[in-house]
Amino acid sequence: MATKIRLMRMGKIRTPFFRIVVTDSRKARNGLSIEEIGRYVPGQDPSIIEVNSDRALYWLGVGALPTPAVEALLKVTGDWQKHKGLPGTEGTLKVAAPKPHKSVAYEAAVKAAANEPAEGATTMKKKAQEKLAAKANPAPVAEPVVEVATESVVEEAPVVVEEVTEVVAEAVETAETPAADAPATEAAAE
Question: What is the pLDDT of residues 44-65, one digit of tens each?
């Protein structure tokens, strides 16, 4: 039986991932396989390549032929060099940094939340920020302007008082004149 090591396509339409399988060369691409020896996820950065080295070397040793795509993956992991006895058996596989555990990430988020304000929105609106800044730093009152204004009012005050007294005196005189004429008009009316 002619065995091949090839990729079996899985996943969605535009987000594929592949299983590295050993299968009969006469079977369909996604048909029945003899053994699954790894997986390949090209959609991530860096791509995930996992190969069971012992099983890959066994199948290469008994005569299974890899497809060109699988051969390239085996060269990246270093298994092809081990099989052929070439230098560079460590491979050139790039490994993503390990993700922190969920509990560690949660504790970091809680500490970050403790530094935020306890109530209200996380970011204030522009007017609210201006009001808060105005309360914290009140604007200084310009004293020289106030002094000049009070001096001018004090200087003008006697003039205004004299004008008001003259107007009141005229109003009193005019108010007395019609009152004096009122009894004469009443007598004439009788």
Answer: 888 899 999 999 999 999 999 9
